[in-house]
Amino acid sequence: MPSLLVKNLSAVVTCDDGDRVLKNADLYCENGVLRAIGGTLPQSADEVIDGSHFWCYPGLVNTHHHLYQIFSRNLPQVQNLELFDWLTALYEIWKNLDSAVVRLSTLTGCGELMKHGCTTVFDHHYVFPAGAGDLMGVQFAAAEELGVRFHASRGSMDLSKKDGGLPPDSVVQTVDEIMKDSARCIEAYHDPAFGSMRQVALAPCSPFSVSSELLRQSAVLARQYGVRLHTHLAETRDEEQFTLERFHMRPLEYMASLGWTGPDVWYAHGIHFNKEELRELARTGTGIAHCPISNMKLSSGVAQIPEMLELGVPVGLAVDGSASNDGSSLMEELRVAYLLHRLRTSAAAPSGYDILKLATRGSARLLGRTDIGSLEVGKCADFFLVDSRRLELVGGGYDPASVLATVGLRGPVDMTVVNGKIVVRDGRLTAVDENSVAADAGRVCGEYLARA
């Protein structure tokens, strides 16, 4: 694998245990691993980059997405709906998913994320129409084409409208079918090794679209194989009412009764927890993927992130699906998260740098990764560069560690590196022709929406 040397970086924001920000530092990568960081390094390399005037950051890690939703964003008929009505309307589109839609939406969404500094993507895919083929395989192939580190979920739903759920019959499966394919996906695609480019999680959709038996068996199977568990939880008051009426328990108590707490579990959203439940999350090490923009668009509420961090709850950052965000940029999420919690909790809110750490080492923790999330010798060479001389950053360079959340970054980053390979250069993807991908995606998107 080629080596890479970035020389004389203006600042390297490490996000390590010591919160070090190195000045005028070099960074050397070999075989996908950071081999040296610091003062002038003696190594030559296959490629040498002049890092003067650039700030360097650990790659951002996205902990919750629905990439297939790229092709149903900004639809006027759903823009002002809240979650349950929004889902019911959009399932009539999503039931027509096929491999072409999944491939091109994955290329589009991951490409957008990479252009904004993201190096690891987790996608929560849970819509598997009959006859659609090996959609997880399609996603991993698209991620490999781009060069992004990819975590996919074998999501699932077994409650359709006739069972009291929200989705149509054509996108739900039996528990036995789901368990069989979950085992197949883990065996075929999950790589637990250091530096892994592909991992699998089991991710039933939500308490209101899956049965108790599916949740219980998914937890057992995940632990047999040593993979992680993920679902939506405590996103809306409607969900809370659903579990109270059907199971006589609040959402977290219900999930805990089925084996769904612990350091191998993380939930998307986590908005409507009470104080006792926050303490239970901290006690069990159960994580939360914070999705501020999606939570705002769907009027779901504001997650209690300052309180979670104070208690020690594991927290990462996420964009959520593009149909509830209309974009795929963790960079935008950084600034929104910072401002949202400043508005809600004033001085108790996380700092700009704290938010950056949520999107890097905090998110890596949710995915169970100790080899990414910070810039340290021996960890994976995942990082991005920002030119400090940009017009929109003038006057903001006194604190490079916080500037991405406080001032924010408009437009793509200058360079993104994954596993020691440059995957974004001068703001453009290096492995694919963006114009061709956009044209193909636009055509397939139009055909897909016309089928609804």
Structure, described:
This protein has helices at 83-94, 99-115, 135-146, 175-189, 212-225, 237-247, 251-257, 275-284, 292-297, 305-311, 330-345, 352-366, 403-406, 434-450, and strands at residues 4-13, 21-30, 33-38, 47-50, 54-58, 60-62, 118-123, 149-156, 198-204, 228-233, 265-269, 287-290, 315-317, 383-387, 415-418, 421-425, 428-429. Helix 2 (99-115) runs parallel beside helix 3, helix 4 (175-189) runs parallel beside helix 5 (212-225) and helix 11 packs across helix 12 (352-366). Helix 5 links the parallel strand 9 (198-204) and strand 10 (228-233). The protein is globular, with a radius of gyration of 21 Å. The strands form 2 sheets. Strands 1, 2, 3, 4, 5, 14, 15, 16 and 17 form a 9-stranded mixed sheet that branches. An 8-stranded parallel sheet has the order 6-7-8-9-10-11-12-13. The N and C termini lie far apart (46 Å). The protein has 452 residues and is of the alpha/beta class. The model has no long low-confidence stretch (mean pLDDT 96).
Radius of gyration: 21 Å
What's the β-strand tally? 17
The mean pLDDT is 96
CATH architecture of the largest domain: Alpha-Beta Barrel
Secondary structure class reads alpha/beta
Poorly predicted regions: none
Oligomer: single chain
Assigned CATH class of the largest domain? Alpha Beta
Q: In this structure, how is the largest beta sheet organized?
A: 9 strands, mixed
Helix content: 25-40%
CATH topology of the largest domain: TIM Barrel
Shape: globular
CATH homology superfamily of the largest domain? Metal-dependent hydrolases
Number of domains: 2
Termini separation (Å)? 46 Å
How many DSSP H or I helices? 14
Q: Report the sheet-strand fraction.
A: 15-25%
